[in-house]
Amino acid sequence: MKLTKTLILTLLIYEILSFQYSYGQELNKQIDKSQKIAISKSPFKDAKGMHRNLTQQKQLRSEYLTIIDSLRTKFQNDTILLIENYNYICLGCPANYVQIQIGDNLISLRSDFPSIKYKTTKINKLSKSYSDTIGSYHSDINELINEASISDNWNINPAKYGIDGCLDGEHTFYSFIYPSGKIISMYMRCWIDIESRKITK
User: Fold this and answer.
1) Which of 26, 30, 114, 121 has CA 20 to 30 A from 66's CA?
2) Residues of the chain whose pLDDT is less than 50?
3) Non-local CB neighbours of 139 within 8 Å, separated by 6+ positions
């Protein structure tokens, strides 16, 4: 009898873990597909070179999909913004910096080179003006959330938010994960905050 109970418990645990793994794999595929669509529609010349980076990231993203899954379970009616930043000079490398935003929560993770394991570096609370606990203003998050609240077409004109010809900066993917399961992404080369864009116009 003990053997049977142990076997049942083992199978139950295996099924739960298998479900979580398959769920994570499916979410990973959806994010990857959405980001590849963003590359194909991007007006920025550097976008096409990001395919190798996305291949690397797909293999490592599972490290923080558990955080996203936990947030989706806790905040079932809220949209999650996933931000993945890639170093400009490292072609084919995974993201070196990741942020996950939902509501007033902002979780930051950084890759631990050379192991390339992601470690949570900060868990911030965002104010209504999108400043974090140390006073840094997240203009990109603020603007994209406002745009996404108006329309699902927030991503169709990346040139509205930034430029391609800068000499530094990072490659960034912004992915909204909606409560319905829909995922919409945008590739950005160099974000320019809205106040700076007003000055240059």
Assistant:
1) 114
2) 1-4, 6-22
3) 130, 191, 193, 194, 195
